[in-house]
Amino acid sequence: MTSIPYIDEARLWKRHMAMAKIGALPGGGVNRPALSPGDAQSRSLLARWAEDLGFSVATDPIGNLFVRRPGADDSLAPVMSGSHLDTQPTGGKFDGAFGVLAAFEALQAIHEAGIVTKRPIEVVSWTNEEGSRFQPGCSGSSAFTGAIPLDRILAAVDRDGISARDALAAVLSSERGMAMRPLGFPVAAYLECHIEQGPRLEEAGIPVGIVTGIQGSRWFAVEVLGDEAHAGTTPRRNRRDALVAAVAMVSALERLMLDEEDRVRFTVGRFEVQPGSPNTIPGRVFFTIDFRHPEASTLKRLGDQVDAVCRAHAGPCAVTIEETFHSLPTEFDPTVVAAMRGAAERLGVRTLDLSSGALHDAKFLQDVCPSGMLFVPCEGGISHNEAENAKPSDLADGTRVLAETLVALANA
Amino acid sequence: MTSIPYIDEARLWKRHMAMAKIGALPGGGVNRPALSPGDAQSRSLLARWAEDLGFSVATDPIGNLFVRRPGADDSLAPVMSGSHLDTQPTGGKFDGAFGVLAAFEALQAIHEAGIVTKRPIEVVSWTNEEGSRFQPGCSGSSAFTGAIPLDRILAAVDRDGISARDALAAVLSSERGMAMRPLGFPVAAYLECHIEQGPRLEEAGIPVGIVTGIQGSRWFAVEVLGDEAHAGTTPRRNRRDALVAAVAMVSALERLMLDEEDRVRFTVGRFEVQPGSPNTIPGRVFFTIDFRHPEASTLKRLGDQVDAVCRAHAGPCAVTIEETFHSLPTEFDPTVVAAMRGAAERLGVRTLDLSSGALHDAKFLQDVCPSGMLFVPCEGGISHNEAENAKPSDLADGTRVLAETLVALANA
User: Fold this and answer.
1) A:B CB pairs within 8 Å
2) Can you tell me the mean pLDDT for A51-68?
3) What are the b/e assignments for B106-119, b being 16+ CB within 10 Å?
4) How does pLDDT run across B135-149, given as a tens digit for each residue?
5) Chain B nearest C-alpha distance from A74 (Å)
């Protein structure tokens, strides 16, 4: 390695602002649904930037977009970095876009520094990470890694009845002439930059997080059945109040999930009461549980108690508990984590080890190649919100560590 | 008085079944929200029955419906009887409807017996007694008696954003040509028949209850405001989870309201969570409190603590508590109670003295004229439930006592 890639903070920021104009919302946020005309526009902007620098651009059968800089031995599997360009319906400027633009800035900086790497380096934009238009999300990475068959992904239909297959065909038809590559070609290593979407880096005043893994998730749906009765006349001893039972369950689950370290993520986000009349004792409550933890053992120990805790607090009501999603924690590859840490040390960038609360495309890549993630702080930890914000210097610091790591891995 | 009105048990039952077809639910119950198209249909059915018998029909600015049979001195204030035709969202066939149909059966029986009364007799159907669509309930009787100003009642908005004013206008526009009377015209006495909505008459095997009073009620609306945030990434210490706060409030209120004698009636019937997404921390919860007690002192002591208990359990969230209704315990007029008792004795119908757990329109009428209520048993004490049921012979016994009392009061 003869020189250090120069990360241009202003250029990186300008590209974020240019990308955020596509699907811009009045409140400062972005609405760029997967495989929408806006998504196509953001792809063609990235492709234009790439072609201006002489990089080749290609896609694949799920519409992932690849920008490639050749390696000294171009037959070797590439080192890859990226994220996604689709957004939540009222999303921000940085969720996803930062990972793609950081990878592209790193590639340009490596190129301009005249660094020759043994392996090719590629930038990727994965299709439909958010899953807000087509469910489930992470379509591009799960098709690429084989986690979900392509046909099943393309069969998803949005709220207007449009299939992912048709929406993708429309996007690809506007990109005629672009090279088509197969799903699942070999990748030597994968790196993803992302805003933290939580407050820890900002609170610690540290610009870069080394993500050691993605926490596991277990989701449950709970239905409590009692008897509707008159609120003014029914004595307590005769009541089967579904709300009283559900409140007792949620209180007990909160006690179960209370950890001093504050690593458990426990949320009851939906809680629906029927009939919902002020003067009628509720006969039915439906609620959801979103429980996450970075350790498989804790995920199992606490998650396995949900059923019993709900039953123990049902009182005179009936309860059914269904586990709707179960995803084990992911640990990123130790060699990639070590490479990121080493790069940050060489650059003198302070880092904090973190585990990711949210799911990302890197979770799927880790199943097929050594992978890792870098986080940068976001203002107040706010994301999935138009108010989402990040500091140009933090974005640049994350990108510096990324570029340094990419070069190291591409020469390994 | 030359003859005894003949109550036709089969006709009375048939009218209940006809009324229950409007808004019928698959489970045997009825959903007829106040001022809905179904409510309008039930009004026009009653109006048609009245006009078929030559009775005049009128309404007033809150949409109460009056059916009138003239008195020998038609300038005298009428004796009035009725209840309501709106239902709970999953209500039964008898709550409310029985009071209106009993009054109508009594009026028809008096008419067919050729009995001339000194005072006019009127049947009334009060608007929005249930309060499940527009809060608070007893709209018709509280507007008529001046307990709540008409403008405030009409400003209430339902879950779909429709105001009571617009819903009422739609109902009245379908009844063009109906006579309009002022709110609060003089009433000589008011009687209301109702199913007990509790188990005591059935347990005692007695067909008619003489209601001596109504317990007091205090209703509250509580709004809890937190912050929406990502369920997977936001640590507990940074959360302002409106559901966690609301659950803590309801748990604490349950402890406050726990009495050994089981005389307190405490219900949280509405509990709405926003945005209601499984993976987003709730930013807002709205819930209602329905608290009742027969003693004014307990009503005050416990009710006055609701505000402080909610505030004490708000945690990091903001909370506003509004008392939406405050009704002291009511004692019905002794002369009306005596008239009902005398009528039952003359007819040889066994009665039991009761206090009402539920609120009824009669509570508001008692503030402006001598009033009373008659209860009949309902199966298992079940009400505000599709399974609500009553025996034709009990309904007829209550109606017999009602007719006899109406004639006595209309000649007093």
Assistant:
1) 209
2) 98
3) bbbbbeeeebebeb
4) 889 999 999 999 999
5) 39
